């Protein structure tokens, strides 16, 4: 730890997002105790897991994974809420590093060529100030040695009001439309399509169907969290 960061930590100690205890030097976002309480899926090495089952009969994907199950009022919900609405982009780094470690230990994601984020509508990105997937994507890109392709997939219709939906269902819109700007950039590529949460799968399905207009493209899907109803 550099001297400046050491002084900052004395006056503004880093806290665990969940229990609020001080984090140790080697801990990020969560303390070790709270991290061990996370509802881990273990999907990265499991064929026909719940992510893959969610898209059967809807859209073909090569492989799918998620790191955590959603638990109402649990740590996984708090992580996504703070990432998405509180500007905690360090949570994207946390998930990205974790996902990279999972991928490198698996044989199922060896052929990924590019990463594509589920895009935000420009107005939503402007009001929020960031895409919650950016740091997640950047960490995956660095760890896997493949580029993030931005602006090839765009959102073209803003979702309807989410005010009457439950806290978790608001995390994934179900009335979104997307447009593939060109079919050349992704031709012949194995695309890793990423999002923060998987609930109904409608958003990812819409994105995947657009990407599949590209010749000889393959798609795998990775999310941070998956609803536990699967």
In a few lines, what is going on in this structure?
This protein is an alpha/beta fold and 230 residues long.
What does this 3D model show about the protein?
The protein is of the alpha/beta class. The chain starts with a helix and ends with a strand. The chain has one domain (40-226): Rossmann fold, CATH 3.40.50. The protein has helices at 3-11, 32-35, 50-55, 75-85, 90-104, 122-128, 134-144, 202-211, and strands spanning 64-69, 114-117, 153-157, 177-180, 190-198, 218-226. The longest helix has 15 residues, at 90-104. It has a 4-stranded parallel sheet with strand order 1-6-5-2, sandwiched between helices. A two-stranded antiparallel ribbon has the order 3-4. The chain has 8 helices and 6 strands; from the N terminus they run αααβααβααβββαβ.
Features:
230 residues, alpha/beta, Rossmann fold, 8 helices
Quick one: biggest sheet? 4 strands, parallel
Question: Could you give the order of the helices and strands?
Answer: HHHEHHEHHEEEHE
Percent of sequence in beta strands: 15-25%
How would you describe the shape? globular
Secondary-structure map with pairings?
Elements: H1 3-11, H2 32-35, H3 50-55, E1 64-69, H4 75-85, H5 90-104, E2 114-117, H6 122-128, H7 134-144, E3 153-157, E4 177-180, E5 190-198, H8 202-211, E6 218-226
Parallel strand pairs: 1-6, 2-5, 5-6
Antiparallel strand pairs: 3-4
